[in-house]
């Protein structure tokens, strides 16, 4: 019986939905964020506020929300070459992947999360990776998650589970999951308090949340919102 979870929590829409999912399911939930030399720190700035608003606004989850951890993986910035770590325009690379892909990021995240879960006695790692609405990142695939789970179990001699609640749903369904978990209150929190925009724009509030409105992350979030709203109207 799994009773504890470590949520990889960036402060964005997906990780906040995953945190709500974990809080509804596990008795003890801790969160983990990373500084990896990202171009802006907006998500890292909002994540603690999101945690506290979840604690205050959802008393049924308050006692379950445990410690927050922030770890540094600046080596990803040192490697460079990504528009998330370097000052460059968003574009497709020669291999067909967008240059928002940070090679090895999720592999490193999961390895470090596994080590922290080991030390904290936590049984489940929850991450918001997804194969349905994504940019083709190979480290978001279900096969990658299964391989990483096996590697962690072998390398740590622990039965850790990697849980991916969003793996097979699109952004519209992610909005619906938030509503199912926490009603309109959680949807409003995600709109107003989370941040996903690659540009770090925080001065324009759209129906779906803050952002520049044109980067790939904003485009994905906005289109998901529109599809979700259309299903509600029908």
Characterize the structure shown.
- With 234 residues, the chain is of the alpha/beta class.
- The chain has one domain: 3-Layer(aba) Sandwich (Rossmann fold).
- The protein contains eight helices and seven strands; from the N terminus they run βαβααβααβαβαββα.
- The strands form two sheets. A five-stranded parallel sheet has the order 3-2-1-4-5, sandwiched between helices. Strands 6-7 form a two-stranded antiparallel ribbon.
- It starts with a strand and ends with a helix.
- The model has no long low-confidence stretch (mean pLDDT 89).
What fold name stands as the CATH topology?
Rossmann fold
Structural class: alpha/beta
Number of H/I helices: 8
Low-confidence stretches: none
**Largest sheet descriptor:** 5 strands, parallel
Give the CA-CA distance, first to last residue: 40 Å
**Measured on Cα atoms, how large is the radius of gyration?**
17 Å
How much of the sequence is in beta strands? 5-15%
Binding site for Zn(2+): 197, 212, 215, 218
Function: Catalyzes the ATP-dependent conversion of 7-carboxy-7-deazaguanine (CDG) to 7-cyano-7-deazaguanine (preQ(0)).
Protein name: 7-cyano-7-deazaguanine synthase
GO molecular function, one term: zinc ion binding
What's this model, at a glance?
The protein has helices at residues 13-25, 42-57, 59-62, 75-79, 105-120, 142-156, 171-193, 216-233; strands spanning 4-8, 28-35, 65-72, 124-126, 161-163, 205-206, 209-210. The protein is of the alpha/beta class and 234 residues long.
């Amino acid at each position: 019986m799994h009773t504890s979870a470590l949520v990889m929590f960036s402060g964005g829409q997906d990780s906040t939905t995953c945190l709500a999912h974990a809080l509804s399911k596990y008795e003890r939930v801790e969160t983990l964020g990373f500084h990896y030399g990202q171009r802006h720190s907006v998500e890292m700035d909002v994540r603690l506020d999101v945690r506290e608003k979840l604690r205050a606004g959802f008393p049924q989850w308050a006692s379950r929300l445990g410690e927050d951890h922030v770890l540094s993986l600046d080596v990803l910035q040192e490697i460079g070459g990504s528009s998330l770590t370097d000052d460059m325009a968003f574009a497709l690379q020669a291999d067909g992947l967008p240059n928002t892909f940070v090679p090895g990021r999720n592999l490193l995240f999961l390895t470090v999360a596994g080590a922290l879960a080991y030390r904290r006695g936590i049984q489940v790692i929850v991450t918001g990776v997804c194969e349905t609405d994504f940019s083709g990142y190979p480290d978001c695939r279900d096969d990658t998650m299964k391989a990483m789970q096996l590697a962690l179990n072998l390398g740590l001699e622990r039965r850790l589970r990697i849980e991916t609640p969003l793996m097979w749903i699109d952004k519209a369904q992610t909005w619906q999951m938030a509503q199912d978990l926490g009603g309109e209150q959680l949807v409003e929190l995600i709109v107003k308090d989370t941040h996903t925009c690659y540009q770090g724009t925080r001065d324009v509030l759209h129906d779906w949340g803050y952002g520049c409105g044109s980067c790939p992350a904003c485009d994905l979030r906005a289109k998901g919102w529109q599809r979700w709203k259309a299903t509600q109207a029908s």
